Recover the amino acids of this structure.
């Protein structure tokens, strides 16, 4: 699926939903629980089995990135799966909280 | 991306928290705010307009209108209700057809004379959108849609409308605010008006952090203090003129104790050092944050945090102590660079123009395009320097720099010294055209006690602290200095007056 900034994706193995806040605008195999994610009109299916080691959960409001930070997914609904591109899992983007300024 | 995404996350993550309202639980929860924004988006769509404008003081209608406009895909335009009638009408003419949420009184009748402006009072707008079905979340996710148009304060020339797109604001929030980062009992007191970028940013960051909003529609130091105490406010943002008044009033009334305030941020102009030092003394438990930003950069780009304040305040090293007057360090999500007149980066400690680059930087004005370089840098027109520790010092608008005998002098440096004088309450240094020097330095000062004023003694005082080429050639006492309503010193007005006298 072609992913651009603003694209929404939904997991088919759990409740996870994400929004791409940064994306290269090319075809990417974004997965959750090891299974390709679908557009938000899709639904959870019992017929697919999540991959081993890809069910560590997603956290609301966290941003997930690949090592080069070419893609950044914001978790807008949490679930049990882990986000990845192909078989490679994405990591939580660490950010130092800033003091409130406005 | 869309601002509504932030509110949708808030309503699904902590929908039952109070978004805007009182400590007693009355007010609107995040779920209420989401629902009402949805109904209001349909209401706004029915009017077939191209812009949603807001011409009223802060009220709960503000976040509803802002998010409803985002949901409806229409730019939101907060207008400055303190402008002259004719100025306001000419701004309204530039944004028609528009639907305006107004005060329901004088301002509303003012706008009804303008063609293609439909208006309603803010409380009617709220009333008309409390009940009914909530539409499907169908907002546009195109990050390049316009979210907010903000007319810049126009200290020079006709106001320009800065364009903030959803991508700029969402990037700013995601980069600087932790989702649900606020504890349940936290509350923020918003006293900047809706037409100030900090007022808009406050709505977005409070929603994403889950921090209850308390509004003070019309600033007054005593009301501000009372509200902080009554609502157990934990966070607030003020402009320097507000903090000066708050500190004065707290100092005069030792019985009034502020204990809940965990963090106080200030920005929007230069903070006189005696004011911030007094504030640190009077509020020892409060964390101070100095934020520097521009309308064109979606608010804050640089922050002097609480640790930095304490380190600078208690240091005996003058270079570190000096950082109390800095704007701290740039946000990690963007780049700041100091450039000379040819656009080349200068070394640490050298003054130049502040340039900034990052996803939250718009640098665009309606009808004038983006004022960015090909590689994305925005020259801010603010002068400044970065010291060897990475701290940014802002010197004010480049146009205000005084050139005396070929030497570039930042007015701020002279003002800092003047404000150290025990009899000076407020001061401005202005360059006035002069045949011999090109410009001479004229200081205008507001005194605590006018009878004690001696120009020569005050000049001697500045000579002890400033290089002789930078000391004021003249010092003139005035009753007050002119500020605009958000605390920006109107140097242009002072200068025009001085040129007439000189």
């Amino acid at each position: 699926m072609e992913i651009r900034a603003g694209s929404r994706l939904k997991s088919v193995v759990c409740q996870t939903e994400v929004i791409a806040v940064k994306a290269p605008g090319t075809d990417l195999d974004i997965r959750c629980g090891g299974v390709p994610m679908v557009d938000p009109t899709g639904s959870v299916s019992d017929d697919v089995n999540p991959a081993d080691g890809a069910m560590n959960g997603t956290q609301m409001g966290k941003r997930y990135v690949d090592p080069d930070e070419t893609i950044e997914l914001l978790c807008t609904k949490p679930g049990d799966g882990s986000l990845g591109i192909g078989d490679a899992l994405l990591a939580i983007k660490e950010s130092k909280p800033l003091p409130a300024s406005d | 991306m869309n601002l509504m995404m932030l509110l949708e996350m808030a309503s699904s993550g902590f929908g039952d928290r109070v978004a805007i309202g009182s400590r007693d639980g009355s007010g609107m929860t995040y779920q209420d705010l989401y629902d009402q924004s949805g109904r209001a988006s349909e209401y706004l769509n029915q009017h077939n307009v191209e812009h949603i404008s807001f011409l009223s003081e802060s009220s709960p209608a503000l976040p509803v209108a802002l998010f409803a406009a985002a949901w409806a895909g229409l730019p939101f335009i907060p207008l400055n209700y303190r402008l002259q009638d004719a100025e306001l009408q000419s701004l309204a003419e530039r944004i028609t057809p528009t639907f305006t949420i107004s005060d329901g009184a004088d301002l509303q009748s003012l706008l009804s004379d303008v063609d293609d402006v439909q208006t309603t009072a803010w409380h009617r707008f709220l009333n008309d959108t409390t009940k009914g079905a909530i539409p499907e979340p169908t907002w546009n996710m195109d990050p390049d849609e316009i979210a907010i148009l903000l007319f810049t304060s126009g200290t020079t020339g006709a106001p320009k409308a800065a364009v903030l797109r959803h991508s700029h604001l969402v990037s700013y929030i995601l980069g600087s605010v932790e989702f649900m980062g606020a504890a349940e009992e936290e509350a923020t007191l918003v006293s900047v008006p809706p037409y100030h970028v900090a007022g808009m940013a406050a709505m977005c960051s409070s929603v994403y952090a889950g921090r209850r909003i308390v509004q003070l529609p019309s600033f007054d130091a005593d009301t501000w203090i009372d509200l902080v105490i009554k609502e157990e406010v934990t966070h607030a943002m003020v402009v320097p003129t507000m903090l000066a008044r708050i500190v004065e009033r707290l100092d005069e009334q030792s019985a009034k104790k502020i204990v809940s305030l965990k963090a106080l941020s200030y920005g929007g102009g230069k903070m006189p050092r005696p004011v911030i030092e007094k504030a640190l003394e009077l509020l020892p438990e409060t964390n101070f944050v100095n934020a520097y930003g521009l309308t064109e950069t979606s608010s804050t780009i640089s922050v002097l945090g609480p640790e930095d304040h304490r380190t600078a305040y208690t240091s005996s090293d003058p270079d570190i102590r000096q950082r109390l007057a800095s704007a701290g360090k740039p946000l990690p999500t963007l780049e700041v660079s100091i450039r000379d007149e040819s656009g080349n980066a200068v070394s640490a400690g050298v003054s130049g123009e502040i340039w900034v680059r990052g996803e939250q930087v718009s640098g665009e004005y309606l009808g004038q395009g983006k004022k960015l370089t090909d590689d994305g840098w925005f020259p801010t027109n603010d002068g400044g320097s970065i010291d060897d520790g990475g701290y940014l010092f802002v010197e004010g608008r480049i146009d205000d720099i005084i050139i005396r005998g070929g030497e570039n002098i930042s007015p701020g440096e002279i003002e800092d010294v003047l404000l150290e004088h025990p009899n000076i309450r407020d001061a401005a240094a202005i360059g006035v055209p002069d045949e011999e020097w090109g410009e001479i330095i004229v200081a205008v000062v507001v005194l605590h006690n006018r009878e004690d004023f001696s120009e020569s003694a005050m000049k001697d005082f500045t000579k002890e602290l400033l290089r002789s080429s930078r000391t004021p050639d003249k010092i003139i006492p005035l009753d007050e200095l002119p500020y605009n309503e958000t605390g920006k010193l109107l140097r242009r007005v002072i200068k025009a007056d001085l040129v007439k006298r000189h």
Notes: Chain A has no helices and nine strands. Chain A has one domain: 8-92.
